[in-house]
Write a structure and sequence with these properties.
Layout: H1 2-8, H2 13-41, H3 46-62, E1 70-71, H4 77-108, H5 120-143, H6 154-163, H7 170-189, H8 195-213, H9 222-225, H10 248-280, H11 286-299, E2 309-310, H12 312-320, H13 327-347, H14 352-367, H15 369-378, H16 381-396, H17 399-421, E3 423-427, E4 443-449, H18 457-462, H19 465-468, E5 473-480, H20 486-501, E6 505-509, H21 513-522, H22 524-527, E7 531-534, H23 537-550, E8 561-563
Helix pairs in contact: 2-3, 2-4, 2-8, 2-12, 2-13, 2-14, 3-11, 3-13, 4-10, 4-11, 5-6, 5-14, 5-16, 5-17, 7-8, 7-14, 10-11, 10-12, 16-17
């Protein structure tokens, strides 16, 4: 646990001051983001704040990263929005709770390192796809389009937005543009005060002032959208599943969404922790991080919090602001709580267009468009295919489908590339007259280099007959075969049978420990009377030469032999 390691290494008052300042800065950044993300999911903004408060505290105290800041993130929007639309708030909270249980299980089973097996084109593709969906969802509020509810499908969403384009509000567009301009330009002035705070407060003050001086001026705000804003109270204990109770049928319905939440939460949190390690030179514990993330997602729904994961932007802000321990994330959560208790009535004046502008920028940064374009331009065509496929599947269908298909495609490509690493060649006096290795008359060598597994076995063994042309004994050199699987063994035995029919003697020479153990279990020299084993290639060649001399052509051997 990161907190235990922090105190074991010594924690001073100076570090506490650093963490307090960093936590305050991150809390200021998290305040508008948490509200915007909850609204984008389709629930009142206070649920995003409760997530930052509860999950941000629990994960910091129990997780495996010193610098990770946990809370609602943009990546979850594409998963949580359909759940909220179909099952309501209670279904959303229950799915988050179930995902937390799954995450704890993943951590206990020490699956934290599995993130390393998800290929880069897959993560890049679905991340860009998620960013595209998020940006599309913000167009409605950014333009002030009077659409009561967007359709579920992405294509249908785009069609509905396009059909309503003539009803865009000039006032909402102006607020969106002004907020975006502030978000982009303020960091050039100073980074001491976070740009989101300046942009949201500036837009809110402008809307209040214009509402007083221009009688006809009106834009949607948190107060008008959510009937007065957010309650001025801390997150209070509730039952996530609501009055209907938790039934087995509901659990079955939510199992798929919960799995999607757990998978995305694990991927995003561990990726964020890896990047934090790169920024700080520290090392996180991935399994402890999964357990902490699971505990945070178990606790948050009991206080109205939605699903949470490691937030890369807030984590990076924490590191740049000088955060040194998990206490910085705890202080960030306390800062959000203080804002809820003190400034909740003021939040109702925040314009929806400003929050949409904030999420548009988040989506753009999340997409990493330059890196996406660079990968498409320079990566191998097969990787580009995986990337584009994951991107399109995420946009058109969902992230679960994209990751599933992407990982399968990447695995198939991996197997293809691994099979290409396995090569074979023939040495014989006729084929290689200048070969330095002196081969006895009637002996040829068939050498295989690389793994002999199901992706490469047939191709590697398919040409073995060419080694037997003009030779009475074939030395099968396997000294550089590191591994052999069941398919490779079957392919090998098939090749040995073909050589038996051709009345060739076979010496298998130099297999490494793992292949040799497979051969011993298969009893190759017992099952095949024409097959012999040798520990080294040199011994195999000598044995083959002796066999050619001692065994009349076409005769069967008297039994198995082994050279040691």
């Amino acid at each position: 646990m990161a907190l235990r390691r922090t105190f074991a290494q010594g924690y001073s008052l100076a570090r506490l001051r650093q963490d307090a300042l960093a936590g305050l800065v991150v809390g200021i950044v998290a305040l508008p983001l948490s509200m915007a993300l909850a609204i984008a999911v389709g629930v009142p903004p206070q649920h995003g704040l409760y997530t930052a408060i509860v999950a941000g505290t629990v994960v910091a105290l129990t997780g495996g990263s010193k610098h990770q800041v946990t809370g609602p993130t943009a990546a979850f929007i594409v998963i949580l929005a359909p759940i909220a639309s179909k099952y309501g708030l209670s279904g959303l909270l229950t799915a988050g709770l179930m995902a937390g249980v799954l995450l704890v299980g993943m951590g206990v089973m020490r699956l934290g390192r599995l993130i390393e097996f998800i290929p880069h084109p897959v993560t890049t593709g679905f991340t860009a796809g998620i960013a595209t969906v998020i940006a599309t969802l913000q167009i409605k509020d950014a333009l002030g389009l009077p659409i009561a509810k967007l359709p579920d499908g992405y294509v249908e969403k785009v069609a509905a937005l396009w059909a309503d384009r003539h009803d865009a509000s000039a006032a909402e567009v102006a607020i969106t543009a002004a907020t975006l301009a502030t978000l982009l330009l303020w960091p050039r002035v100073t980074r001491a005060v976070p740009a989101p705070l300046v942009a949201i407060i500036g837009a809110t003050l402008a809307v209040v002032w214009l509402g007083h001086v221009l009688p006809g001026f009106h834009v949607a705000t948190i107060g008008t959208r959510f009937h007065g804003g957010i309650p001025q109270q801390p997150p209070l204990p509730i039952l996530p599943w609501g009055a209907d109770g938790m039934t087995l049928a509901r659990l079955r319905e939510l199992a798929g969404p919960a799995f999607a939440i757990a998978m995305l939460g694990a991927i995003e949190s561990l990726l964020s922790a890896v990047i934090a390690d790169a920024m700080t030179g520290k090392k996180h514990d991935p399994n402890a991080e999964l357990v902490g993330l699971g505990l945070g997602n178990i606790a948050a729904p009991f206080f109205g919090g939605i699903a949470a994961t490691g937030a890369l932007a807030r984590t990076a802000t924490n590191i740049r602001a000088g955060g040194t321990s998990p206490l910085a994330s705890v202080i960030h959560a306390l800062a959000v709580l203080a804002a809820v208790l003190v400034a909740a009535p003021l939040v109702s004046y925040v314009p929806m267009a400003s929050l949409a502008a904030l999420l548009l920028l988040v989506a753009y940064n999340m997409s990493d468009a330059r890196h996406f374009a660079h990968t498409v331009r320079v990566a191998p065509r097969s990787d580009v295919t995986v990337l584009v496929t994951c991107f399109l599947l995420t946009v058109v269908f969902d992230m679960v489908v994209a990751i599933g298909v992407g990982v399968v495609l990447a695995a198939l490509l991996f197997m293809k590339r691994m099979s290409e690493l396995t090569s074979s060649r023939v040495f014989s006096p006729e084929a290689e007259p200048d070969q330095a290795r002196a081969l006895p008359a009637g002996v040829s060598v068939y050498e295989i280099a690389g793994p002999l597994f199901f992706g490469a076995a047939q191709r590697a063994m398919g040409a073995i007959e060419t080694a037997g042309v003009g030779a009475r004994a074939v030395v099968l050199a396997l000294g550089t075969v590191p591994v052999i699987d069941a398919t490779g063994l079957v392919a090998l035995e098939s090749a040995l049978e073909r050589l038996r029919v051709a009345k060739k003697l076979v010496v298998i020479a130099g297999p490494l420990p793992e292949p040799r153990s497979v051969f011993d279990k298969a009893n190759l020299e017992v099952a095949h009377e024409h097959v012999f084993l040798a520990d080294t290639l040199e011994e195999g060649i000598k044995l083959a030469g002796d066999l050619v001399v001692l065994t009349p052509e076409g005769a069967r051997t008297s039994g198995p032999a082994r050279v040691y």
